[in-house]
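Quick note —
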Amino acid sequence: MKLAALFSGGKDSTYAIYLAKKLSHSVDALLTLYPNSSESHLLHYPNIKFTSLQAESMKIPQLIEKITDINPETEFKKLEKLIILAKEKYSIEGIVHGGILSKYQKDNFSLICKKNNLEVVSPLWDTKPESYMDELLKENFKYIISSVSSDGLDDSWLGQIIDKNGLENLKKLQKQFRFNLNFEGGEAETFVINCPLFEKSLFIQDSTTEWDGYRGRFEILEAKLKDNA
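Predicted structure written out below.
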């Protein structure tokens, strides 16, 4: 099936594309909304502009729509506009959705797709957090923490690449502080810098962090693609 993918640059949307391709679907477009605020109910905010490098590395065309109003209704209208454009331009038959537990997101995506006669493919839906996070490492997904907003996650995690040791530390903190290990509850956001879909990895040249004592953000200021070793 010809698909377009809802794409934020994080581990979930990227891995959903990877699984869709493993299921023999083709992913012919990336749909990315640029929110103007971190208060968006629907969308990732940190480093969203650098998804263009990820798209280039995956050799998948990207359709972009910027949003200045964080009203959820406005966000879904903009998303539907992108979906209609993808259907017209790439003759897609469905949408890849990287959601895991958010019924709010899935129901709204499903309504838009049903309205436009498109299927919804959600390969991560209801996956178990620990097995999913283990699987990401096993499949050579390399990603950083781009924001944190949960007890147990301090500024030391900002910009950190999650390797085996990092994941083991997250598991210990999850048991202590009871947050979602896969960050589905918004405890943290991620940004993929390399994976099997990428022809070139993303190299962060300059960055800055913000921290208010409870929540923080790792902001990429400059990045480029480099050949994988």
